[in-house]
Amino acid sequence: MTFLKTPLILAVSGALVLTACTDPNQIGANSSNPKAQRGALIGAGAGALAGALSRGDGNRGDGALVGAVIGGAIGAGIGYNLDQQEAELRRELDNDVTITNTGDRLILNLPQSIVFATDSFAVRPDLQDDLYSVAASLNKYPQSTVQVIGHTDSDGEAGYNQQLSERRATAVANVLLTAGVPSARLQTFGRGESQPIASNLNAAGKAQNRRVEIVILPTT
């Protein structure tokens, strides 16, 4: 049995412990850019592991240390860009569009009520400006892939809801395409009623579940 060298154990386990165990609420408590710090931790952990695996047995510790440094720098850059993009989108978009920054992606939640009429998959004309603002942001920050995901509540037949969610995701993606976002960056998914974020037992919960999400995933 081959045992890992001490430098590799320290480098990989240290970076991964920082990544996995640090309380997200405590990261950057005194920093103006906590998402960049979180991105750096994520990148350091991934970089350490990748660096270790890319080296031979005798050099894995060095590879892990180098990978952690490079991965941390890349992760910090991703976090910083996401912070900048998030701030710009918040200024540009309607307040009904919620934005979640997880440190490694942005999730834009567009409620059905501002995007589509009931049972329709035609994007409402008054939302076009918001989607064009999203497209402008995507074009300004081109190092990302974009997932457009449609969701419904549980009313009606599940197969119909699945098709409706797919059509709505495609409709939103088509607006982004028209606004100049390359098709190679866009992926569309319909989740139907399978991924609720609230109860389907009351009207308020159903309204939350009827939505389209635009997920911005940075690439390196």
UniProtKB/TrEMBL annotation:
It comes from the Bacteria. The lineage of its organism: Bacteria, Pseudomonadati, Pseudomonadota, Alphaproteobacteria, Rhodobacterales. Residues 103-220 form the OmpA-like domain. Its main location: membrane. It comes from Roseobacter sinensis. Pfam families: Gly-zipper_Omp, OmpA. Keywords: Cell outer membrane, Membrane, Signal. This is OmpA family protein. InterPro entries: Bact_OuterMem_StrucFunc, Gly-zipper, OMP_bac, OmpA-like, OmpA-like_sf. Residues 1-20 form the signal peptide. It is found in: Cell outer membrane.
